């Protein structure tokens, strides 16, 4: 089994895609005006409009209501990224006990996003097989 993607459902796909393109430095691939994907080396962040889940039972998905999941991106230099981003910061760059330096922000829908750089030898080793986007 391979973990392939996470989909965030929103009422404003263009706004959310623009945010994630700025944060990741990657361009989204648009399938339709209601669905785009940002592919990284490890997984894909899919962004879909509420129209993409219309066949689900009412209330199964509520756009902008997440308060339990964190979307995480490995980045080359979290401190440098913090300096150039103009986003809603929840936690300025902080070195976590597990060895990652993390910047937590909110996307325009309120979803929590962790941008992190491994800084301790153990964390660097753990993520040595992953490549952060340039």
Describe the fold and architecture.
The longest helix is centred in the first third of the chain and has 12 residues, at 13-24. 25% of the residues are buried. This protein has a four-stranded mixed sheet with strand order 1-4-3-2, covered by helices on one side. It has helices at 13-24, 78-84, 121-126, and strands at residues 5-10, 29-32, 35-39, 44-49, 70-74, 88-95, 100-106, 112-118. Strand 6 and strand 7 (100-106) form a beta hairpin. The protein has one domain (5-54, 70-126): Roll (2,3-Dihydroxybiphenyl 1,2-Dioxygenase, domain 1). It is globular. With 134 residues, it is α/β, with parallel strands linked by helices. It is 19% helix and 36% strand.
Name the descriptors.
single chain, about 130 residues, alpha/beta, 2,3-Dihydroxybiphenyl 1,2-Dioxygenase, domain 1, 3 helices, about 20% helix
Helix content: 10-25%
The structural class is: alpha/beta
The shape is globular
Taking strands numbered 1, 2, ... along the chain, how are they ordered across the largest sheet? 1-4-3-2
Number of helices: 3
CATH class: Alpha Beta
Distance between the termini: 28 Å
Q: Domains counted in the coordinates: how many? A: 1
What average pLDDT do the residues reach? Answer: 93
Q: Provide the CATH superfamily.
A: 2,3-Dihydroxybiphenyl 1,2-Dioxygenase, domain 1
Counting DSSP E segments of at least 2 residues, the number of strands comes to: 8
**Unreliable stretches, pLDDT < 50, 5 or more residues?**
none
Largest sheet: 4 strands, mixed
CATH topology: 2,3-Dihydroxybiphenyl 1,2-Dioxygenase, domain 1
């Amino acid at each position: 089994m391979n973990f392939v993607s996470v989909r965030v459902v929103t009422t404003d796909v263009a706004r959310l895609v623009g945010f994630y393109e700025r944060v990741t430095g990657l361009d989204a691939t648009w399938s339709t005006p209601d669905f785009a994907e940002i592919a990284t080396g490890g997984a894909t962040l899919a962004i879909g409009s509420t129209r993409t889940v219309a066949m689900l039972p009412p209330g199964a998905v509520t756009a902008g209501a997440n308060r339990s999941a964190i979307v995480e991106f490995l980045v080359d230099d979290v401190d440098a990224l913090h300096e150039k981003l103009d986003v809603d910061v929840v936690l300025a760059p902080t070195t976590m006990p597990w060895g990652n330096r993390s910047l937590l922000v909110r996307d325009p829908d309120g979803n929590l996003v962790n941008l992190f750089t491994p800084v301790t030898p153990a964390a660097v080793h753990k993520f040595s097989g992953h490549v952060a986007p340039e």
